Amino acid sequence: MRVLAVSLLAFGAAYAQYSSSSSHPCPGYTTSNVLTIRNGFTADLTLSGSPCNVYGNDINDLVLTVTVEENNKVNVLIEDAAMKQYQIPQSVVSLNRNSSLHSFADLSFKYTDHPTAGFGFQVIRNDTILFDTIGHPIVFEDQYLELTSNLPKDANIYGIGEGPDTFRRDVNDTIKTLWNRDAANPYKQNTYGSHTVYMENRAGKFHGAYLHNSHGMDIVLANETIQYRVLGGVLDMHFFGGPSAYDVINSYTDLVGRPLPIPAATLGFQNCRYGYKSIDEVDQVIANYSAANIPLEYMWIDIDYMDRTRDFTFDPVNFPLPRIQQTLANLHSKKQKMVMMVDPAIQRNSTYGPYVRGVESNAFVKNADGSVYVGQVWPGYTAFPDWFATNATSYWHNELSMFYEQVPLDGLWIDMNEAASFCTGSCGSGVAEDVVPKFPWTVTPAVPPRIPNVNNTYLVPKYSIHNPQTEISEKSIETIAVHANGVIEYHVHNLYGHMMAKNTRAFLNDLRPNVRPFLLGRSTFAGSGSYVSHWNGDNNSDWDELYFSISSMLDFGIFGIPLVGSDICGFFSNTTEQLCNRWIEVGAFYPFSRVHNGIDSIPQELYRWDSVAESARRALGVRYALLPYYYTKASYSTINGSPIARPLIFEFPADTNVLDNDSQFMIGEAIMISPVLFENDTSVEAYIPNSLWYDWYDHSVVVGAGKNATLDAPLNHVNVHIRGGNVVPTQTPQMSVEDTLAGDYTLIVALDSNFAATGTLYLDDGVTYNSTHSIIKFYSDGKTLVANGTYSHPVTNVVEKIIVLANGDYTGNKYVNPNNTNELILDNLSLCLTESWNINLF
Ligand SMILES: *[C@@H]1O[C@H](CO)[C@@H](O)[C@H](O)[C@H]1NC(C)=O
Ligand SMILES: *[C@@H]1O[C@H](CO)[C@@H](O)[C@H](O)[C@H]1NC(C)=O
Ligand SMILES: *[C@@H]1O[C@H](CO)[C@@H](O)[C@H](O)[C@H]1NC(C)=O
Ligand SMILES: *[C@@H]1O[C@H](CO)[C@@H](O)[C@H](O)[C@H]1NC(C)=O
Ligand SMILES: *[C@@H]1O[C@H](CO)[C@@H](O)[C@H](O)[C@H]1NC(C)=O
Ligand SMILES: *[C@@H]1O[C@H](CO)[C@@H](O)[C@H](O)[C@H]1NC(C)=O
Ligand SMILES: *[C@@H]1O[C@H](CO)[C@@H](O)[C@H](O)[C@H]1NC(C)=O
Ligand SMILES: *[C@@H]1O[C@H](CO)[C@@H](O)[C@H](O)[C@H]1NC(C)=O
Ligand SMILES: *[C@@H]1O[C@H](CO)[C@@H](O)[C@H](O)[C@H]1NC(C)=O
Ligand SMILES: *[C@@H]1O[C@H](CO)[C@@H](O)[C@H](O)[C@H]1NC(C)=O
Ligand SMILES: *[C@@H]1O[C@H](CO)[C@@H](O)[C@H](O)[C@H]1NC(C)=O
Ligand SMILES: *[C@@H]1O[C@H](CO)[C@@H](O)[C@H](O)[C@H]1NC(C)=O
């Protein structure tokens, strides 16, 4: 057992340099009654002076609990002694506080009572102070918490979001606002999800911190500090010692929940648009993809299928149920699949079953007077399921199960679950029961923002988070709406999408108990990766958003939601042929690879332009060849949280040249993508880290010298490199994921400069939870290749071919491919994947 490294720091000269950097005169807290507990200690914290009441009422008595857990985590929990502040229930986000991880990163905790700022603490890894609040008073009020830590100058901070931003955050000037919002990807502003975890790279080593709190907040990076400004709750900080990026993500996802096991098929290419006019048009799109030889795995239908955009209904004219069933059956006969959208908002209509049953079972969010809260979404006035209601789960399961009886889909897409509402407040309350806004069932135009009620601090908190809306209730359920447990929306707003995801996944799990569901969700919170995959919402068809789609994808790797991607070719506005070309060359490598389009935009299915179809076939050809590799990475995500798509800095943590690289990315540790992201470019300035690399297409050697190189990138070409030192399993691309994964393998043995390589292949049925599985490790010293591992999954496909790539003619030119002396090909093999083997390469 680890000896607890907690100590009281004597206040000394070293800290005299710090003085309170806060603009408000808050007194901070003083410790007393320090008590040792298992793995840590508790202490009382008492307000050190008169309350400052800066954005609320100072709470006099707090309790500090510090635990240094049996792993590389430290938890610092500061609660109000009266326990009145809202805390996220375990039933909503189940924090694994008793981790079974056993890696040590030498974290320790120190604290002191600073003469003017009061209680402050440090989290230290060996001799490096990772987090340091000393000199910054803690503010703990009913509606405002403030915690500040020093950061090194020009620190390397990643994470905190969601919203388009540079992957490495600008530490001189960043305010990340956490308040879930239906907003179409505004740069640096808050959008659909809230994730408070961040990672820092300090001299090549990573650590991380997570604040477990559901309230609206700003996290401010400026003046060599990180400052949390939170609208309520408690300070429940978790620190992860790393030292690799993957160690941090492993610890974080172990705490909040691991990513879900995905159906292998979800790694296939997918197509959607908002605005398909009929099921006939959907059929035509499916047929056109086949005709163009572009592998379409999933066809998606947006709210278009619904009868007047109401959940669980079918448009009787354009999307009649029997025709949808026929399309679904046709897709299934060709190993293709279908997903449709479901929103949380339920039309307020006293003869519409889902509404009637929701009212009967008390399953909707309420107004303070106990009446149903009525906002406005696509179908007009709507009620919203209250996930805290006792009956909400059974209500939602019942509605979904009646829906699934009609359309046995391959997945669900839950949208608008921030939850979005087009009016502010309970705008339908008081409007006669069966009045429904007129077709087209949307907002009455231009509802002016109401005058904010500054006298209600839950509607207008005194500290104004940087939510770019007149009031925080705008475009969502009002903050004073009431949940069944008596808690108002103010405290739990950021949990709505997460709870919908959890309930919806629970339904899918019950429906087909052994089948891994596919669920895509827009609004997420810490731990949502256990329930949903994610796309980055309504982006715009422009080059900037193509660029930021990479950092958004990489962010969600940190957040523990690795199956992620942005709408390929862009959602709003019209794409161009060139943009769509370049976008599929990036999007083919997103873990979640889907074209999606807005209702007012020109069509952008990949077959619409010959050049785009060609780029798609080529880029998706690489993707499909890599499917066993992608699937192996996805499987490891469920084991240790590691992201599928990774920034270069995770793989080359000591290379300062890649600290802010967000224009290239890696899949796993072996594949680097260097796409074109700027209009009219036909080459890429790509950074080639210090390593041996091989061009994907011609296998030529690229000696990475830790410098930029100009790579040719004509319109139909995306640069892909294999990193030396890796054995990459590939298969021959087919029109479906199932057929691709059923084929024989080609192993690419990309040797490093020592003529060595290793790799992994994870095999299971890709469908069920309880599948048998094999984990096969490959090792090569350049002369032999060994396959060894644990084998329990029965497969008949074999390794048919091995391609060895090396820098130099290490074979003595004996059996070397005459076309390329760096390459050795062994063909017509029949090496099984059900037991170990060892072969000589020459
Ligand atoms: C901390 O120090 C120990 C002992 O010197 C060393 O083994 C370990 O690698 C260090 N950890 C980090 C993250 O630097
Ligand atoms: C932040 O400011 C420092 C100087 O104080 C500068 O060196 C650094 O480049 C700045 N960082 C960014 C991202 O602007
Ligand atoms: C950073 O410091 C400057 C100068 O003291 C101050 O004006 C500014 O408000 C500070 N920024 C933040 C976000 O605290
Ligand atoms: C209310 O719901 C019923 C049952 O679905 C439907 O027939 C009716 O058209 C709806 N009313 C309006 C105004 O949408
Ligand atoms: C749950 O729903 C049933 C009927 O559907 C109702 O009788 C019961 O009162 C509801 N429970 C609560 C807590 O509202
Ligand atoms: C807030 O309360 C004050 C004092 O009661 C009152 O004068 C003011 O009109 C109120 N403001 C609003 C927006 O209701
Ligand atoms: C998109 O293209 C269509 C058809 O050319 C045009 O009507 C529409 O105005 C364009 N939309 C935008 C946002 O430019
Ligand atoms: C790309 O080329 C087109 C046609 O020459 C031109 O109109 C456009 O401005 C160029 N874009 C950029 C970013 O240079
Ligand atoms: C490589 O090129 C990129 C894009 O032009 C540039 O931002 C970066 O600073 C360059 N890196 C190095 C190490 O030269
Ligand atoms: C998985 O569960 C199904 C029933 O749900 C059962 O038929 C099958 O044999 C199980 N497979 C394994 C490998 O346990
Ligand atoms: C395979 O791994 C097992 C267990 O690690 C080891 O005993 C065995 O020698 C290995 N076989 C080969 C061929 O390397
Ligand atoms: C060498 O190149 C020629 C011409 O491209 C091709 O036909 C032949 O199959 C190649 N040989 C090998 C072993 O790859």
TrEMBL record:
* Lineage summary: Eukaryota, Fungi, Fungi incertae sedis, Zoopagomycota, Kickxellomycotina
Q: What is its EC number?
A: 3.2.1.21
**Which superkingdom is the protein from?**
Eukaryota
Q: Give residue ranges for domain Glycosyl hydrolase family 31 C-terminal.
A: 641-728
| Pfam families assigned | Gal_mutarotas_2 (PF13802), Glyco_hydro_31_2nd (PF01055), Glyco_hydro_31_3rd (PF21365)
Compartments in which it is found: Secreted
Tell me which UniProt keywords the record has, alphabetically: Carbohydrate metabolism, Cell wall biogenesis/degradation, Glycoprotein, Glycosidase, Hydrolase, Polysaccharide degradation, Secreted, Signal
Please give the catalytic activity noted in the UniProt record.
Hydrolysis of terminal, non-reducing beta-D-glucosyl residues with release of beta-D-glucose
What is the recorded function of this protein according to its Swiss-Prot or TrEMBL entry?
Answer: Glucosidase involved in the degradation of cellulosic biomass. Has both alpha- and beta-glucosidase activity.
Identify this protein by name.
Answer: Probable alpha/beta-glucosidase agdC
Record organism: Smittium mucronatum
